Amino acid sequence: MLQRIIPSSGESLPVIGLGTWQQFDIGASAQERQQLTEVLTQMATHGSRVIDSSPMYGRAEAVVGDLTSHLLIADDFFYATKVWTTGKASGLQQINSSFQKMRRQTMDLLQIHNLVDWQTHLRTLRQLKEEGRIRYIGITHYHRSAHAQLEQVMHEEPIDFVQFNYSIQERHAEQSLLSTAQARGVAVLINEPFETGTLFKRVKGKSLPAWAEDYGINSWSQFFLKYIIAHPAVTCVIPGTSNPKNAVENMEAGNDPLPDEAICRKMLQVLEKL
């Protein structure tokens, strides 16, 4: 799988990771847990590492912790979660709970979810980073209405990661957010790459263009993901899935070759004609 550099450290990350919203918010069902374990195993097999979660995602953090703790490759993953509350004390309590649920002594990335009380939490995260409890600090949002504020924070504060929505259909981030992150040396995680599944509804029953195979595109999910990671500012995309077959498709989108600017324009034309 292709790798991209985290600008603040020089560490490299695979370009495709895994989101856990909804898919990992499950109970004790052995069948569901076995399926998610296979998703995690396929991730590692295909060179992926990043697992992104949040206290907002119900039981997802605890399920990630439970499942990875039974894998010999548990320490090979890059664990990212978030703080999603107001106030310093509440934030620290939630962060400590996340460490416990995900069974981590050190968290790779701690992000401020949807910019909730971000000034307060940013001070906390910096302290935790100095103490060695977290390795990277980030901010997140899922909607284009917050893109300007994400940019403002990047201009004013030193952070390692920014996470936001971007897809072949929702390209608002191309106006300035992606270039700002690149210019400020901030790593980029992309959420909502499939527009909560609406992109698949748009292409249902439609065939891929013949030339797509030349770029290792054998499914619509790979078509959508390749468009995103073709942008050089993108560090990693985190599509969510509980289906091992879909996970493999997603991971294989991170392999060479990537479409160039001309092919990306052709990809947009394909979508516009559907």
UniProtKB/TrEMBL annotation:
Source superkingdom: Bacteria
Annotated NADP-dependent oxidoreductase domain residues: 16-263
Pfam families documented for this protein: Aldo_ket_red
UniProt name for this protein: Aldo/keto reductase
Species assigned in the record: Flavisolibacter tropicus
